[in-house]
Structures are given as C-alpha cells and as structure tokens.
C-alpha cells in the first residue's frame, strides 16, 4: 500500500469488500492446493493473504508483520479468522495487538510458515512440493480433503465431519481413483488417477460449485460457513 495516498476506503457502499480479503477468499475457496513462496518484507497484506495457503515457504530474509495497530488501521484479509487457526490465539494476539515486524525464524517457530530456506531456494522448494503433489496424489481427493479441513474443522463437534466421511468412504467401491490407488500400490508404480476437478467431485459434497458461487457473489451452502451457519 502506498501510504502517501492516504488511508484506504473512502466513499464505499455496504457491499464493498476490501481487496486483501477478496484475494484470501479466492484462495480459501480454491480447489487446488495453494503454495506461498515468500521473500522479503511480507507486511500487512503480505502477511494476511498467505494465511489460507496450504503450504508456506519463506526465505531466511523474509519479514512478517500484522502492522495495522501501528497505523491506526484494522486487520484485513479476514486475518482475524485465519491467523488464530494457523498459529493459535495467544500468538495471534501478540502479533496483531503489537503490530511488530518479526523475522522468518519466529514465523517458523510460531507455525506461520512450514519451512525456511535460503532466498534463491524459495521458488525451487515450492515447485518441488507442487511436483510431489502432482505425481503422487489424486486431484479429486486433494480438492475434497482441502475443503474438508478448512470447513469442517470449524464445527463444535466431529459429527458433521463423520457424516460426510461416511458418504465419501461409502462411495469408494465405485471410485476409479480408489481402484487406481490400490492397483498402483500393489503394482509398485506411480499412480495415474483418472478423476478430474471439478467434474468428478461427488455431487453431495456441500461446497461443490463454490467457486462459481463466489464469482457471482451468491450465498454459501447452508451449514458450511462455520458453526451455527
């Protein structure tokens, strides 16, 4: 943000959504795993839009900061929801209330990033992680699992997760991906999963079509926006 232009916002209506949150929402709703490769100063929006990513790799020279309180701003990017889920409430309180900038080592110790490497190794490390997913995992399974973790963990009991588990597991006998997973294991070869996203995602998964709904600014499926939704 170019602070020389003054504070953000201005003459906006009730439907206005701040830009960092729009970005983090798209990452949250994505059916692909998202890998954040971070170098340099990831401060403000740079620290918020990475939160819904599935894997975060940072350079040793990276710096992070939820600096909003030091500028009289407020948290954006839906970070007040994401950050405690990633690092715990205590650490989120420390980082957000003080607004201090902290190094990659502290981000790693706090669970904000999964790995810290030298600056010129950040992108190769991210690409290697992506290749491992591509070569060894089923896209449909990954897409559904990602959203199960993001959405079902917000409920106050395991029962909604178990209900969906049961439907998914009950359908494995007719799943071409499951057949290929077992066959490739027994044949000791790399799998070649035939399922594709989004067409082969089971129709009963509550967030099927969530990307289209987000693009059209439509309501979310009932019961899958969090506890009590």
Would you mind describing this structure in some detail?
The strands form two sheets. The protein has a three-stranded parallel sheet. Helix 3 (79-87) crosses helix 4. The chain is mainly alpha-helical. It contains ten helices and six strands, in the order H-E-E-H-E-E-H-H-E-H-E-H-H-H-H-H. The protein is globular.
Strand content: 5-15%
Distance between the termini: 34 Å
Q: Which secondary-structure class do the elements indicate?
A: mainly alpha
What kind of sheet is the major sheet? 3 strands, parallel
| Number of helices, counting only DSSP H or I runs of 4 residues or more | 10
- Give the fraction of residues assigned to helices: 40-55%
SSE ordering:
HEEHEEHHEHEHHHHH
Unreliable stretches: 211-229
Task: Give the overall pLDDT as a whole number.
Answer: 89
Q: What's the overall geometry?
A: globular
Rg (C-alpha, Å): 20 Å
Query: What is the number of strand segments?
Result: 6
Strand order of the largest sheet: 1-3-6
